[in-house]
Automatic annotation (TrEMBL):
Glycosyltransferase 2-like domain: residues covered: 7-160
EC identifiers of the protein: 2.4.-.-
SUPFAM superfamilies found in the cross-reference section: Nucleotide-diphospho-sugar transferases (SSF53448)
Stretch forming the signal peptide: none
Protein name as catalogued: Glycosyltransferase, group 2 family protein
Organism placement in taxonomy: Bacteria, Bacillati, Actinomycetota, Actinomycetes, Bifidobacteriales
UniProt keyword annotations, A-Z: Glycosyltransferase, Membrane, Transferase, Transmembrane, Transmembrane helix
Record's keyword annotation contains Nucleotide-binding: no
InterPro entries named among the record's database cross-references: Glyco_trans_2-like (IPR001173), Nucleotide-diphossugar_trans (IPR029044)
GO molecular function, one term: glycosyltransferase activity
Entry keyword Ion transport: no
């Protein structure tokens, strides 16, 4: 049996209205040497049946099933079955440009890289139209960079670091110690990506927008429990990231510290509206303690200007006002888009 070039992994949970679109965009790729793993994560709708129908008509598609355990568990499950030289992840409610695989593989080969990143479009799910991305990235213009150079840009979020924004050699996940997605946290892609970059000798960058990320109406932090999970996730992420990079990339101590401070301040700002919750209040207090710790670790004079400004805003109690302004702008922007 021939080993496929790329293993595509897609967690599926209650995606009966979108999984077909996603799979058609994969079957329509200009590069056809791939295998697809669909992991049904305990769906309660017709997703599992739709996946099985696709698998019957295309032998490259394998359907796995598990009780509802979350996307991280689903991806880890499929990684144990994947046989391709490269691994690519997609979400079941998004779709790929026809030449995504071809462009990514060309970049990896031409730059002798083991990891490559891409750019993406934002698509309004209701209208199907592309919408402006308010997030301004400083995406690298170089065709490839070293691991250290990439980490310097990745840590401050200068380019997209989503699970579907990269293709990697499968060995990066499986070399000892194995890298797997942490479960029961948010931002699980950020929690592993710096480790994959650290293992790669060279990292490629594709300049084209090859992935279509569909924006839906739901807010990620729609409840107190979700906001609490976000705080817990960020605390876990920054703590492990600091330990890992202190050991593996000690010369990036200042960049790592500033990245962790920025993420902690961000979550403090976006969860300001739930600080009356007792559990959230305790977690926010821990976040503030970590901000102080990382500031001391890297030295106050090495804290970047934006972090220092955000910290001073926090100290004088203006985060609620900034949260209100940001929410108002977001609502206004959504109304403009819907017209």
């Amino acid at each position: 049996m021939t080993v496929p070039k790329v293993s595509i992994i897609i967690p599926v949970y209650n995606a009966e209205s979108t999984i077909g679109r996603c799979l058609e965009s994969i079957r329509g790729q200009t590069f056809q040497d791939f295998e697809v793993f669909l992991i049904d994560d305990g769906s309660s709708d017709n997703s599992f049946s739709i996946c099985k129908d696709f698998a019957k008509s295309d032998q490259r598609i394998t359907v796995l099933h598990q009780s509802n355990s979350g996307p991280s568990s689903a991806r880890n499950h499929a990684l144990n079955y994947a046989t391709g030289q490269y691994v690519y992840f997609a979400d079941s409610d998004d779709h790929l440009e026809p030449d995504l695989l071809e462009n990514m593989l060309h970049c990896l080969a031409d730059t002798h890289s083991s990891l490559a990143f891409l750019r993406y479009n934002l698509i309004d799910e209701d209208s199907g139209e592309e919408i402006p991305n308010t997030r301004k990235y400083n995406y690298p213009t170089a065709r490839n960079l070293s691991a250290t150079e990439t980490l310097r840009l990745l840590l401050p979020d200068n380019f997209p670091s989503f699970v579907w924004s990269f293709m990697a050699e499968r060995r990066l996940f499986n070399d000892s110690p194995v890298i797997r997605f942490p479960q029961n946290i948010l931002r699980e892609d950020q929690a592993i990506l710096y480790k994959l970059v650290d293992r790669a000798d060279s990292i490629g960058f594709v300049q084209r927008k090859l992935y279509n990320y569909h924006i839906r109406g739901q807010s990620l932090l729609g409840s107190k429990s979700e906001s609490t999970l976000m705080i817990t996730s960020v605390i876990e992420l920054v703590t492990e990231r600091q330990c890992y990079l202190d050991e593996h990339r000690p010369k990036l101590r200042i960049q790592t510290g500033n990245a962790n401070i920025a993420l902690l301040l961000y979550v403090l700002k976006t969860t300001e509206n739930i600080k009356s919750n007792r559990q959230a209040k305790a977690l926010r207090k821990k976040c503030i303690s970590l901000v102080h710790k990382y500031m001391v670790n890297i030295g106050i004079r090495n804290v970047n200007h934006d972090n220092m400004f955000q910290y001073l805003i926090l100290k004088i109690g203006l985060f609620p006002f900034l949260f209100f302004i940001k929410k108002t702008i977001h609502i206004f922007f959504k109304r403009r888009i819907s017209r």
